Amino acid sequence: MTADDRSSGESTPTPAPDPPASPLPGFLVRRPLLGVALGAAAISFAPVFVRAIDPRALGPTAIGLHRTALGAVVLALLALARGESLRPSRRVLLFTALAGALFAGDLFVWHRSILRVGAGMATILGNTQVIWVALAGALFLGERLARRFVLAV
């Protein structure tokens, strides 16, 4: 900015910083729906694999531990590749630990239900959580259920 620009009150806009480079393969960056489809296909096999593993060799709790440990390693590598900090604040760490404990409970129950009622039924039962969370929000937090939600359920 020159002295003339300052005196006239004009300013040049500051360009936005470039977004961080994605650690994902280029074909997934250019086609995000393909990435979503691949992710959905990959996660769809999780209950099938849980059911296929002999529970005497590796129980449902150990399977959940291995799944989350593998996921944590992959997420840490992605964060490092993006140059992100792996040192959260105490508040973030507290909420992360709470979310992790709730997710561990979810996997604990889901993996056991896969062995008891089968992969398909366990997954359907687990996915009813959307309904239960919405109802809990309405009952305990006074949230209003949208008409679209009621019609969808």
Short structural summary:
With 153 residues, this protein is an all-alpha fold.
Blueprint of the fold:
Elements: H1 3-8, H2 26-30, H3 32-44, H4 46-52, H5 60-81, H6 90-117, H7 119-126, H8 129-141, H9 147-152
Query: What's the order of the H and E elements?
Result: HHHHHHHHH
Distance between the termini: 59 Å
Can you give the helix content as a percent range? over 70%
Counting H and I runs of at least 4 residues, what is the number of helices? 9
What overall form do the CA principal axes indicate? extended
Mean pLDDT: 83
Strand tally is 0
Rg over CA atoms, rounded to whole Å, is: 23 Å
Largest sheet at a glance?
none
What structural class should be given to the helix and strand makeup?
mainly alpha
What percentage of the residues does DSSP assign to strands (E)? under 5%
**Spans of at least 5 consecutive residues with low confidence:** none
